[in-house]
Amino acid sequence: MHNSKRDEGEKLIKEITRFSEKDILGKNDLESLKEYAKEFNSLDRFNVESSQKREFLKLSGAAVVGGLNAFTPGKKHQIRWKYHSVFEPNSGDILSNAMKNLSNLVNKMTNGEFIIESVPLKPADSLSSDLLLSNISDSKHEINCGIAGIYYSAKNRGLYFGTAIPFGLNSEEQTAWHEYKYEGQSKRKTSTNQNQTIMEYIYGIYGFNIKPIPLIATGHQMGGFFPKRIIAPEDLAGIKMRIPGLGGEILAKLNNDFTVFGSTLSSSAEPMPHQSKSIPELINSHKINAFEFIGPYEDKLVLEKIKRANELIYHYPGWWEPGTTFELQINRDDWEKLDRSFQGILRAACAQIYNETLANYNGS
Question: pTM of the predicted model, to two decimals?
Answer without folding.
Answer: 0.75
